[in-house]
Write a structure and sequence with these properties.
By secondary structure, this protein is an alpha+beta fold. It has one domain: Nuclear Transport Factor 2, Chain: A, CATH 3.10.450. A six-stranded mixed beta sheet has the order 2-1-6-5-4-3. A hairpin with a 5-residue loop joins strand 1 and strand 2. About 20% of the residues are buried.
Length: about 140
């Protein structure tokens, strides 16, 4: 794996976080292929880029639970599967997630992005995110 590829893959997660912090759904989907599939920490499954964008519009909108939240991913690990295929594992935090009772929480999660290099540029083809639940044995 070249350092340039690893940096480009990690930069996708960084750009996603920056778009999240701006509450910019178009920025959040910039790396997704048109047919990318995304599964959120709550089990919502988007079957393409436009579905995920629509979900982010709703979740970051005026009454959405992420409308004031911020996101960071301090831990990232890239694994190359071939010259044009990679997996990015990452740990991330969402701060100020508004829950049902109106309070704000800090949510810790882990995720995986499946990446493809298309036309010399890395793109996300699949995402799976999972909440970390402390105290669980498995």
């Amino acid at each position: 794996m070249s350092q340039a590829d690893e940096d480009a893959i990690c930069a996708i997660e960084d750009r996603f976080n920056a778009a999240w912090d701006r509450h910019d759904p178009d920025g959040m989907v910039e790396s997704l292929t048109d047919d990318a599939q995304v599964i959120t920490v709550n089990g919502s499954w988007s079957n393409n880029r436009e579905e995920f964008r629509d979900l982010m519009v709703r979740l970051h909108g005026p009454s959405g639970p992420f409308r004031v939240s911020t996101r960071k991913s301090p831990e990232k690990h890239v694994r190359m599967l071939g010259p044009d295929t990679a997996i990015l594992h990452y740990r991330f935090w969402i701060d100020k997630d508004i829950v049902e009772d109106g309070s704000q929480i800090l949510r810790e999660c882990v995720g995986i992005r499946v990446m493809r290099k298309i036309g010399g540029r890395w793109h996300t083809v699949a995402v799976q995110n999972t909440d970390v639940r402390r105290g669980r044995r498995h």
